[in-house]
Amino acid sequence: MIVTCENGAVFKIDNLPGGPHVIPVAFIPGGHLEGPAVVPQSFGLHGGEIMAADDINGVVYAIKSDGTVTPNVFNWTAPDWDGAEGVFVIRRIRVPTARAAPSSRRYTPVT
Please, which residues bridge with residue 63 across strands? Predict the structure, then answer.
């Protein structure tokens, strides 16, 4: 589990034997982190990293598992993301394609 704090701290919490273990990952001075998510590997340059919104500073941070932080990962300028409360990953869902109806059930439009 990934936990962020409004003081800029980022932790990983596991439930392995002898746990739970709280493991510090990063600290972002002045950060006001909320709503972390791990983005998919397919997310380009920062795939597989933790992303967290900062609603006070109006930015999104990318955080690697080794603690490396990329501030303002999307290079937004205020007020682009003022008030952003979190990062949410929306899965890509395959939508089935419509199949043509059998010829006996096709309708002829009325003109």
Answer: 50, 69
